[in-house]
Amino acid sequence: MNECWPMAGKSYQDVDRFTKVVYDTQMAVKRSLRTRTKIEPVMDAPHMESEVKPVRRWGWMGWAGVAILVITFYWWKTNTWPIVAMIGFRPITRFEVNKTLYSQGGKTVVDNLVTERLVDSEIGKTRTTVSAAEVDERVATVRSNFATDEEFQTALTDRGLTMDEVKKQIKMQIGMEKILGDKATVSAEEVTKFITEMGSLMTASDAAGQKIEAEKILKNQKLQGEITTWIESLRTKAKIWWIGKI
């Protein structure tokens, strides 16, 4: 029996140390098994694959695409390019052009835009409608004052206007005329006085034609006066905040 027991013939202290070594070895094995049991299922869980994903970064082609989209949108919105000219390798930017133009007539431009917004808003509030046919008819009347269509287009170019801008202004003018037309009344006495004073300068030569012409001129003058007063009242009542130096 002593041959089967490895500690046969040893002292009590030796047996005690041996027992502790065996116990410590068994506990280390158990801790290792517990740790492996806890970690391995988590590492093998299928959801871990979805949590650990490589981070995708934009390459130069992605940023180039974004730049192209931004420039295209700018061109579509402003009908121009950010750089308008090059002197060697030195660009002249649209920002510089706009800054110069703004310093020369920025107050007038902003003032006109404010007026347009106020008038357009008021026309909408009164539900006054202007048809495309009415606008086209007025454009045709304006164009008839020029000998050729080329002269008409040249006049628009000289004033820095496009046909769309002309139609927009005419539509707004017709809308104001519809709102204020009833206030521009002309009396018979005013017509007679106008013919007496301005008859020699009138186009019509007969009495009936001069009367119609005089009524039209006087009505238009009064209507423009009413429009001017009306716009001033809109600007007075409106809340306008001027931001920055104008």
Largest sheet: 2 strands, antiparallel
Alpha carbon gyration radius: 45 Å
**What is the distance, rounded to the nearest whole angstrom, between the alpha carbons of the first and last residues?**
113 Å
How many domains in all? 3
> What spatial form do the alpha-carbon principal axes imply?
elongated
Give the CATH class of the largest domain. Answer: Mainly Alpha
Oligomer: single chain
- Going by CATH, the homologous superfamily of the largest domain would be Porin chaperone SurA, peptide-binding domain
Series of H and E elements: HHHEEHHHHHH
**Which strand order spans the largest sheet, edge to edge or round the barrel?**
1-2
* Overall mean confidence score, pLDDT: 79
CATH topology descriptor of the largest domain: Triger factor/SurA peptide-binding fold
Q: Helix count, per DSSP?
A: 9
Q: What percent strand?
A: under 5%
Number of strands: 2
CATH architecture label name of the largest domain: Orthogonal Bundle
Residues in helix, % = 55-70%
Structural class: mainly alpha
Main traits of this protein?
246 residues, mainly alpha, Triger factor/SurA peptide-binding fold, 3 domains, two-stranded antiparallel sheet, 9 helices, 2 strands, 69% helix, elongated, disordered N terminus
